[in-house]
Each structure stands twice: as C-alpha cells, then as structure tokens.
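Reviewers of the previous submission asked for a worked example of the structure-prediction workflow described in the proposal, so we include one complete record here. The input consisted solely of the amino acid sequence. No template or homolog information was supplied to the procedure at any stage.
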Amino acid sequence: MDPMGRAMADYWKNKKADRLRVFSPMFEEDEIPLQTLSNC
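From that input alone, the workflow returned the following structure tokens.
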C-alpha cells in the first residue's frame, strides 16, 4: 500500500493520524487533513 493509503487506513481504523504531510520538488510542503480524504 502507498503512504497515502496507509495514512488513510490508519485514520479509518484508529482515528490517530489527522494530517498527511506532502513533500514534492514541484511545490512547497503541504498538509492534507485526512478527514477531507475520508469524505470522498
């Protein structure tokens, strides 16, 4: 499973992680609230 998928699964099962930190050479560091992703 990819890192985003693992973070979403952890949030769904444990409600511990609440943000996913995203790093990319194409844009600045960002954080995505996992609750936003789980509502899709």
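The chain has a mean pLDDT of 79. We consider this example representative of the routine output the project will generate in years two and three.
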